[in-house]
Design a protein that fits this description.
The complex is a heterodimer of chains A (418) and B (779). Chain A is an alpha/beta fold. Chain A has helices at 2-6, 10-29, 32-53, 215-221, 256-273, 301-308, 321-324, 345-354, 380-386, 400-414; strands at 59-66, 69-71, 75-84, 92-97, 108-112, 119-127, 132-136, 139-144, 151-155, 160-165, 189-190, 200-203, 225-228, 230-231, 235-241, 276-282, 285-286, 332-337, 357-363, 390-394.
Chain lengths: 418, 779
Amino acid sequence: VREALAGLTVRGRLFLAAGATTIVYAVIVGQTPLIRVGVLISALPVLAALWLGRSRYRLALTRTVSPQLVAAGQPSEVQLALTNESRTPTGVLLLEDHLPYVLGTRPRFVLEGIGHGWRRHVTYQVRSEVRGRFDIGPMSVRVTDPFGLVELGRAFHTTASLTVTPRTVALPGIPLGGAWTGSGDNRPRAFATGSAEDVTVREYRRGDDLRRVHWRSSARVGELMVRREEQPWQSRATVFLDNRLISHRGQGVASSLEAAVSAAASVAVHLSQRGYAVRLVTASGEDGADWHSRSAGVNTAPLLEALAVVQIEHSARLDTTWLSDEPGHGGLLLAVLGAVTDHDGPFLKRLQHHAATSAAIALEVDEWAPHLARSAGKLTTTALAATGWRAVTLRPSDHLELVWQELGRLSSRQGVGA
Amino acid sequence: MSRQRASLTFTVGLAAAAFATTWFVLLSWRTFTSNAVELTMPLLFIGALVAGIGAGARWLRLPLVVVLSVQVVVTAMCVLGSVTGSIAPTPATLDEFVRAFQDGLVSARAYMAPIPSNVAPIIPILLTCGAATFVVMDLVAGALRRIPLAGLLLLVIYSVPVAITGNGLSWWAFVAVSIGFLGMLHLVNDEQVSRWGRGMGTDDDADPGAFGVRTGAVRGSALAIGTTATTLALALPIIIPTLEVTLFDGNGPGQREIEVINPMVDLRRNLDRGLDVPLLRVTTPERNPSYFRTTVLTSFNGDTWTPGDRDIPETQVARGKMPDLTGVAVEAPREEMPFDVEVTGDFDSTWLPTTPQVSVMEVEGDWRYDTSTMDFMTTDDDTTTSSMSYSFVGVSVQPDPALMDNAVSGAADVRSAYLEVSTEVSDDIRNLAATVTKDATTRFRKAQALQQWFREDGNFEYSTADIENADEGNLDSFLDESGRIGYCEQFAASMAIMARILGIPARVAVGFLEPERIGPDTYEFSSHDLHAWPELFFPGAGWVRFEPTPGARAPGVPSYTDVDLGPEASAEPSPSATQPSEELAPRGETAPSEDAVSDEGSSFPWLSIVLVLLGVLLVLALVLVPTVVRRRRRDRRLDGGIEDLWLELRDHAVDLGHGWPRGRSPRVTGDWLSAHFGSSSAADGAERPRRGPEQDPVAVEALDRLVGRIERARYSRSGDAHPSGQAADDVRVVEAALDHGVGPRVRRWSRWLPRSLRPAPHAPATEVVTRETADAFRG
């Protein structure tokens, strides 16, 4: 009840104050008929608070978001199941699900006079044009009385998250390097059994030879494990995304960064579909995930998820730690670059040496900010080409497929592994 | 479509509720006029029209300005029509309306509510105001939906008659108003809620109504809350002290008011009636009882003398000893005589005839006295003097003319109302008063001169022949050279007015002149004995009777009024005069002081103020007891051993509402306690500050030390030595950290109403709040 009294709205407090003033005035001046009025309007908020305060209720809410991962522009469905586990609540319940504004309007419901065991489902759609990870919820509950004098705020706590991935375009197949074979055709091949340390294990499947059981691992894991005497070779590809603030122009959805992210996502999806193990590297280094293994099939979700949350990097420094660990093991490197300055020269050189094959898509970032003065200096692509990169330019008006094809033509002309 | 329909219902319902509520509140204006139907029925019509126009126009979504102007025009035409009979605003009708309005203003100024029916009605004013109220209410409540603002407006309308006449609405009208107002409030709020809930996603397969549930149960709750509040409003004023509101006080205005019947009308009727009907039978040892007073008329409104406004609380019941005589010096010679009065069935009055001064009164029934006039009246409509008997002890005072001659102005000793002269009194009368008394030097001599002038020098003639025409407003003609024929009322009224003009407080008394002796010690007053005379106030002598009516009617004058004071009196105010000045000095002092003592009204508040102060002190003491007890206990414990300190910690935690784990080791308890620590640097205002051991490391150290001490005290072989002052300091630190872990409100409660003083076992309060199950996701 104390909580309910604290929850008096401005109107409720006003009523209380006006009523008390009227009573005091009427008592002092002796105008008895006014006391009634005072009692009436001061009793109202108190009664309303008492009435709301004695209400005890338990509401259980289940929220399901499906799918949790959608591409920008695709709808996702939110399902709510609300159950009243207690008595009939006394007030009017105003429910509002909190959504980020990019996901659309917040759904609101009015509940009143629901009984015990009441259960309802409701479904609504959310859709976002912007990539990112969004929290859906929590659901806030406001309880009010019939006169709007008291309002209590309650809230559920949990939220569900929805990841909106960048838009991707399907890219045509072009000749690329990066694998030992130089073609996109990679298959698992057997490796000669060396020491026991090299052995990888997997769980026992029906039909496995009992002699292949790896007892030590079985003892550790608690179930039968067998040695794997074959190991897939991986075609590895690294997608480097330059997400530094100084490399990009424009704001929000219309910025060159978004175009870069979208291009990187398209490339990454394309490469993993072609059987590459793709890893994503940004200006701040590798994202936590390792090489996205080929055995996961063409599941590009983790890659896209990582790209969905890529933020602009404020420092001008480029992280190079990932380059140092295994030189020459880079496989195919595909860089999505913004504006390149002279300071980036050494880094780009290292990048080139790190990978077996490297190619770049350079964004003509000034085109994204036509109102700004053009940055001095030559075209990024020419600068890159001068240092031996295979590079193509992407402008806002360009289609990525066409640019990608051009890159393919470029590589066939220069020859693989130039 | 369904929403549109609902909106129509809402629009019409709101407009109708606003109209009905306003009309019921306007019913309280009935008390202003004696023919209320002429007011309420046109208002009902106008209100319905305004509401209809408003609702219809809002339904058609006409602009607000258009609606408002249509309403104003229609309302103005209706008011015009009901006042002048024609709704066309021609110059003639407009002129007539303006005249009626001004006449109404004049009557409103001249008469008390309710305005009598035989003067220019104030209906035009009330109609105009009422109609304007309807328009504004329709705008505020119907169009703008500001119901609290509308409520304020209603309160203003309601409080106007309350402030002027003290009459409110009857209980059923109040209930109706309350229903109307709460109904509006609920309607608008309900509409807002339903509009709020419409933000449902426009999805084809999701039913928008699947979640929103409106069963109408809230309407029942609104009814319950509203009914309870209204019942409280009807019932509670009875309990609220100093007020005499009764629960169901009749069916309309004017019932509760003390009916002040103008005794002049009685007097005129009785004098005129021809038949001399016996009215009073008085048994008294007094030789020649005369001048029995029934009523005192205190206020003159320019036309007539009226008893004025009387404010008579219940404490002034005429039983037993009466207050001391007003303005009479204690040394003044006085004589007390018992009187037994028997009233015949023919005398129907709400006023009791008594001698002007009474010391003891014995009467059955609810008779009250007015402290300033000392006349007796009933507050009960059914009670009259008819066939009743009562007794009293009358006091006759023999004023000292010399004293009165020297008296200072009495203006300071009486209410200013006794000196008010209506602005309508013509300059002729003022000049006349000055001319007649120009030779007299003191106030008393001026009064004497006036009386002399009325009785003899002014060539007045007493006659009751023209009583019927002796109506209001002819004071001028009565005092004019050509008039000067009249009866006692006119003489008394004129002299009182002229006395006031001269600066002497004056009033008119109405009563009986001289009885007829019908037996030993028994006298009879009859209807022809009715009389009126002026009473003038002189400090030290009190209210003194004069007799301006010529000898044909009243043969004798009070002895003190025709004393020849001698010419040298004009020099008397000089201090050299021995006798009078000696008397004057103390009188001048004592009269006001006695006045203060004898004034019942001023002695009462002292008692109640003292009582109120005592009550406040008592409440204050009650409020302070818990915190004082707790503080003393705390001080004692802080000086005690380690177990006492531990107990103090426990009580402090309990005070803050944390409870205290039972059956745990000191270490576990300490861990539990440290989870409630708050940071001292955190903002003080937060209701729920962050809590945890990390918030205050210093306090955690202190607590650890305390825990160590108590463990040693309890479990080590030697036991702990008597704790040093540091342990008490540690307790203070820990308590401060605990204080920082709660909101300011909890802290206040713990200080003023510590929970540890409650005898009940302390358990941490658990409250059921909303719960949420783990959300299930599909990935």
